[in-house]
Write a structure and sequence with these properties.
The chain is mainly α. It is built from 6 helices and no strands. The mean pLDDT is about 85.
Length: about 130
């Protein structure tokens, strides 16, 4: 098959990823509104702020990072995560380290969806003005 035939075949069969398909403007608006609703519930004390995951090996990894003798490693990881997000990280605690890790992960695989969170936060902040 010639290169131009391969390219034509790719164009006919390339339909984008599921995330691309799910990111149309209507779904994005609905998703942002859903996030805003959950933020309001959290602010009102109707929903917990905490996240949890059941993963023994990952729990062991994070617990080891929390130990004083591994502070340099923990700080290096937190600094790298902070650089990815464009934020400064000082003396990272477990909760902040996990939140940064989740944000970087979501940014990598669902950046447009994570932007909906940022938009909802901006809208929420604007209400308080």
């Amino acid at each position: 098959m010639a290169d131009d035939e391969l390219e034509e075949l790719r164009e006919r069969t390339d339909h984008g990823s599921r995330l691309d398909t799910a990111s149309d403007e209507t779904n994005r608006t609905e998703f942002r509104e859903s996030i805003a609703e959950h933020l309001n519930e959290i602010d009102a004390g109707e929903r917990q702020k905490t996240l949890s995951a059941w993963d023994g090996p990952l729990a062991a990894f994070v617990s080891a990072l929390e130990e004083d003798q591994h502070a340099d490693r923990r700080e290096a990881i937190a600094d790298t995560l902070g650089e990815e997000l464009g934020v400064d990280v000082d003396d990272p605690k477990k909760s902040e380290l996990l939140a940064l890790t989740l944000r970087v992960g979501f940014q990598e695989v669902a950046g447009e969806d994570l932007e909906a969170l940022r938009e909802a936060l901006r809208e929420d902040a604007a209400k308080g003005l």
